[in-house]
Write a structure and sequence with these properties.
mainly alpha, 0% strand
Amino acid sequence: MDVLQYLKTWNQEVIGLAGELLNASPDTREQKWTALKREILSRSALDKNYLLPEVLELSHQGSYLASLAQDSLDKLETMIRDIELIGSSRIDGVEKAFAPLLAALTSYTELMAEKVMPLIRAKMSTSDREDLYELFQDVSGEPDFYEQAMQA
């Protein structure tokens, strides 16, 4: 597997988790929120520390796209922290409360799918994409990876 396959799969899975959150009963909302939050923050840490620096080096366009992606991830992290301050299990009107986060998440996955992934495909060798995927696997498998991502 290479990093492009991973990114495509992740995009599909996280949008699915977002849908599950919107449809969750009050009893399962906290569990669904925790799963979605974990995925977003883990991916943010991987992208910021490993993927975006590589994209930055690909071309002038890569530099621009890496900057857009960084801004999008920062926005997602801020929104997650804001929801945490409110307390996701106490939120009434789930659609209204989570709509801005889900819109930002959709925007990020579209940016990655429509702009960043094609650039990676065009400019990065298959071997380098495979190496980056292996790095993602190694780093995300570390016992304290998620805790570090939460504190970033």
